[in-house]
Task: inverse folding
C-alpha cells in the first residue's frame, strides 16, 4: 500500500486504516514513498504509525542502483525499526552489488517471463490495450527457473 497527501506527505489516516484492515498480514509501504516530499520525515511517520514491516524504495531514483546511497542512509536512519526493501530495476546482474552494499536480507525484483495465453479463440481485429501493456494473448508470470538460479547463486 502507499498513500500520500496532495502535499507529498504520508497520508497518516488512510495508512493507519489500511494497516488495521490488513492485520494480521505483513504490510509493505510501496514506492509511493519515493515520491514523498521528505524521505526521512516519511520514514519516521511510517515507523510512528506502526504495523508496517517494510518500505519498498529505489532511494527516490529511477532504480535502486541509482539510489544506493540514499537507500543506505535510510537503512541507517531506520536502525532496525522498520525494514528498508530495495526495489526498482534490480536484475540478476546488479543484485549482488545492491545486496553487498546495503547488507539487507530482502530485495524486490521482477523476473518476468512472457507466456502465450491459453485462450483458443482470438479475434485479430480488436486490440484492447496500449503499446506499453501486455497484448491480449500473452500472460506475464514470474520466471521460476531464473529465480531458482538466483537463489542457488546466493
Result:
Amino acid at each position: 500500500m502507499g498513500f500520500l497527501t496532495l502535499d507529498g506527505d504520508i497520508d497518516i489516516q488512510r495508512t493507519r486504516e489500511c494497516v488495521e484492515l490488513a492485520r494480521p498480514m505483513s504490510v509493505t509501504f510501496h514506492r509511493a514513498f519515493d515520491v514523498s516530499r521528505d524521505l526521512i520525515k516519511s520514514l519516521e511517520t511510517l515507523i510512528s504509525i506502526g504495523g508496517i514491516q517494510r518500505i519498498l524504495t529505489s532511494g527516490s531514483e529511477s532504480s535502486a542502483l541509482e539510489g544506493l546511497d540514499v537507500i543506505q542512509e535510510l537503512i541507517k536512519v531506520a536502525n532496525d525499526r522498520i525494514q528498508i526493501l530495495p526495489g526498482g530495476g534490480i536484475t540478476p546482474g546488479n543484485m549482488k552489488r545492491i545486496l553487498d552494499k546495503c547488507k539487507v536480507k530482502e530485495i524486490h525484483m521482477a523476473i518476468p517471463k512472457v507466456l502465450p495465453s491459453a485462450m483458443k479463440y482470438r479475434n485479430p481485429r480488436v486490440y484492447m490495450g496500449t503499446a506499453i501493456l501486455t497484448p491480449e494473448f500473452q500472460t506475464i508470470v514470474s520466471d521460476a527457473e531464473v529465480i531458482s538460479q538466483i537463489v542457488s547463486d546466493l
User: Anything to note?
Assistant: The chain has a mean pLDDT of 92. The longest helix spans residues 12-22.
